[in-house]
Amino acid sequence: MKHVRLYQNAPLKINDNKFLDDYAxxxxxxxxxxxxxxDITLFNGDGFNYQASVLSVKKKCEVxxxxxxxxxxxxxxxxxxxxxxxxxxxxxxxxxxxxELGVNQIIPIFTQHCVVRLAAEKLQKRMQHWRxxxxxxxxxxxxxxxxxxxxxxxxxxxxxxxxxxxxxxxHRAESSLLEFDQPDQATIIIGPEGGLSDKEIAYxxxxxxxxLLLGSRVLRTETASLxxxxxxxxxxxx
Length: 238
Known about the structure:
Blueprint: E1 5-7, E2 17-19, H1 22-31, E3 39-43, E4 48-56, E5 62-70, E6 78-84, H2 88-100, E7 105-110, H3 120-141, E8 148-149, E9 153-154, H4 155-159, E10 166-169, E11 185-190, H5 198-206, E12 210-212, H6 221-236
Parallel strand pairs: 1-3, 6-7, 6-11, 7-8, 7-9, 10-11, 10-12
Antiparallel strand pairs: 2-5, 3-4, 4-5
Helix pairs in contact: 2-3, 2-6
């Protein structure tokens, strides 16, 4: 059985006994059939891994936290993905892989070509769903810092914020990543299916974004997002 990592939205302290939340308890007992007496790793987003021994595998699992170690696998590049909201599972996939690749912040954005239009109640359900995907990706990838998911913004609201080193991806740009100085922080703006309109691209550039070209081919939104993150991490991050 592979080693288990689980997120707990609660303070964690060495030598404390703690009952896991309902989701983690169900996952251990019903999905993994995890045996009493073995160790798991917990994290709560503070950048540490907490080793814990499973004391009970009843409906509510009880563990004892035995040690804490710093998790040093975060990138030195503070990276934000401003992603045009894509349809259904495509957005789920984007968020999951962006977390695995080390982004620190994800901002869904509404743009002209967004097919997805979410009313308030449906939007909050979708946000809860995306947060679960982020947690799952952290558990799987070994991260102990949970990326922040911001409420969706319009492109105008996004550009009104003060971000350092903003890049807007589009296939008619002329500059590659190799032509830019290495930043400590970066924000990538990527459109949904159909991309950003010419007007939107011009607007972001007028407000300080730098046009970025990934290659000579036109990429789908999910390919462009992950390729941009991976290339930035390789050049500037980890």
